[in-house]
Each structure stands twice: as structure tokens, then as C-alpha cells.
Amino acid sequence: TLLVNERMLESYVIARDRFLTPTGKMFPGVGR
Predict the structure, then answer these.
(1) Of 18, 26, 27, 32, whose CB neighbour count within 10 A is largest?
(2) What is d(CA 13, CA 32) in angstroms, rounded to the nearest whole number?
(3) In this structure, what DSSP letter does residue 7 have?
(4) Where along the chain do its domains lie?
(5) Torsion, CA 1, CA 14, CA 12, CA 8, rounded to 10
């Protein structure tokens, strides 16, 4: 399970870095 969690975390970081907005929010419309 630890390996799966690490892979999920890695995928999250990659997606975050890829879709992160300049303001630092992944989903700019959610916080309004």
C-alpha cells in the first residue's frame, strides 16, 4: 500500500506542477 500511496503522491505532484496557476491555486474558480 505504501508503494501505491507514493505513486499517487508522485502523480499528484506532477499534475499540480503541470496545472498550477501563477497565483498558486490549482482550481482558481473554487475559492470564490
Answers:
(1) 26
(2) 24
(3) H
(4) 1-32
(5) -10
